[in-house]
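Subject: Interface between my chains keeps coming out wrong

I've been trying for a while to get a sensible model of this assembly. When I model each chain on its own everything looks fine, but I need the whole thing in one frame so I can look at the contacts. Pasting all components below, labels as-is. Any help appreciated, I'm running out of ideas.
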Amino acid sequence: MNLNDAPQRIRWITVAFLVGTAILLSILDATGNLDAAFSILRDPLTAVLNVTSGGADTVAGVLAGPRDLEAARSEIALLQSQVDELERENEELREIQGEYQLLLDLFNRARQTPEYTRQTASVIGRDTSPAIRSIIIDKGSEDGVRVGMPVESARGLVGRVYRTTGHSAQVALITDNASAVPARLGNSRATGLLRGGELGGSLLMDWIDLKYQVEVGEVALTSGLGGEFPQGIVIGRVVEVNRSEAELSQRALVQTATDFDSLEMVFVITDFQPLDVDIFANPPGN
Amino acid sequence: MRTGIYVAIPVMLGLAVLQTAVLPRFSILGLVPQLSFLVALSWALLRGLEEGLAWGFIAGISLDLFSIAPLGTTAVAYMAAIFAVVSLIRVLPENRFFIPVVMAALGSTVCLLVYLVFMRLLGFSSSVETAVTLAPLILLNAGFMLPVYWLIYSIDRVIHPRRVEL
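Reply #2:
Try treating it as a single job with all components included. I did that and got this:
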């Protein structure tokens, strides 16, 4: 095999056509002109995702539990087939218990803030781009999910709905580069802006006034400023504070409460109305 | 080239589903190898630049269906990377192990840079820090390239058997 034998002649018109089409699609999509076409394409693909995701759950569960397998093997040696059967039943019960715990956490979260109506959704996929952090959920516009709606898990804030199709939606996570969430710290009451894109999925809280004495361990919550998220949703906990008197503000590194790698179910808050701040961009009379 | 394109569409859609719903559950340091890119690059190394670009285009469009990035962004990045890398192949020594791995690393670097720049042009947030956090992905792609390349090589030998003159 000689790699240099691969045909190198190309038709430049083909290259120009492919590049031109890709750029044109990017521009059309970025300006929101492909949404209708997307829905037609994405809906059947979402159904495929749903099935594939379910299968992957099973495989991931088996691979994630080598200790259980090890324990089961030793017991099989002692108690043979009877224990094997009991072990299988036990695994099923654990799975049910895990699901019950997850639903209980979600229920408790909903009970804490009954003023909001929520739509429960399963996570069926993640963004294919390594530079973007988003998830795909199995509820869409036909389930009442709209662009801009806040999304939370049982542990805390997850992100905002970015795009919807009939039966699915893409949620931009708070750990994404473009994310900026106005936040308040629990004890010091300091406010700042939480930005994503940090290593390890942490968030950086910026623009904290130097007058506040921020401490490690403080809980970060949504402040409600900006009107994009409801007030008081837990985001995470401060793990590091960078205070420099030479600068005008201080920064804090916040570890998110939600483990985004193992996120299975989320809540979409369907009755929260984000404030329309566009009127401030164009003051009356201009 | 036509047959290649008809094969590429289901293959790349399947890989996109795999990359969205399955691979994230087995991530390494929070990253997953870009299988679609590696397959398109392997095809380009074996079948030439034109077919490689077509496979890169289809791979990119398929992936963008499951991303919040504008449709076509990944296609542009993949095609740029495949073009850059396959254009370089003549200056590299002939080695069936060395070349695919180096090409994967080089291609991943070009791909990430073009992707981030293009995203920036479209108004999305991307920075040098983002590029740095994605650096391990280059090694991950290079690590996965050999098995992917040999799989594609075997498939190519079945589809396009070599002629032997006696």
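Reply #3:
Confirming on my end. Chain B touches chain A through 69 residues (CB under 8 Å).
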